[in-house]
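During the no-cost extension, the postdoctoral fellow (Dr. R.K.) reprocessed legacy sequence entries with the updated structure-token encoder. One reprocessed record is reproduced below for audit purposes.
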Amino acid sequence: MILFAENPLHCGCEQQELWEWLRDHQKVVGGGGDGVTAGGLRCEQPPELRGQLFLELEPPRFCSVPLVLKLAIQDIQPFSVVVSWQSRNHTGLHGYRVAYHALDGHDTIQGKLLDRSARSVRLGRLSPATRYLVCVLGNSNAKNQQPNSTTTEPLSQLVDSQTSRCTEVRTLEGSEEGASVGEPSTRVPSSLITRRLGLIVGCCLGFLVFVILVAVLSYMKVKKQRQLAKREQPQPTQDYLSYRHFSLQSADPFAAQHATGTTCA
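Re-encoded structure tokens follow.
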């Protein structure tokens, strides 16, 4: 048995993990007399809680800072939304539960279990043009924590509290035929098609540039080989005419005729 008598304590948010541990191990905690509720651990600070038994207090009494500080809805689509949040450091936190249900009807409350490092999640398979209540709840029970699994929550827990925060969101207009099976969001298929189309166009342009480069290099190589082949061929010798040929061809035609006439006479 652990005795906490005469041990002053500053009751604040940093003691919330101790409070949860003591509540889960009441069999080994005692303070004399009637156990955990008498003569046990008492608050010394703040002044408004001085002298009160620590385990008889609820967390909102000694810690006014909520577990989930901010909650926002992003990327609102006809069939899905992205929920993101910020939370304070709490070592006793084992994960989060994101619960949601349609306010326009009587749909079953659905939710997802996430680990303590998660700060956002996409909620899919929603109905278009529908108002939803979305809540993020801190989970301090490690036994019920199975990350990335689904769960159902009672409606009474979907309110703002010390460990939870809620907000409302309305999905965009859309047709049921636009929902996809894998991810019911109209943006996901279009973005996927855009990425694939960009990849195809990029591959085609790269292949075209490669072909042009190979063709240019091949042409330059063939041209260079032809030039080298021409240089290696022997040069043909030129046949020059002698001056005798020119002199014979340039003789006086009148002298030739006179000689011919004399012979005939």
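The chain has five helices and twelve strands. Residues 187-232 form the longest helix (46 residues). The remaining legacy entries will be reprocessed before the final report is submitted.
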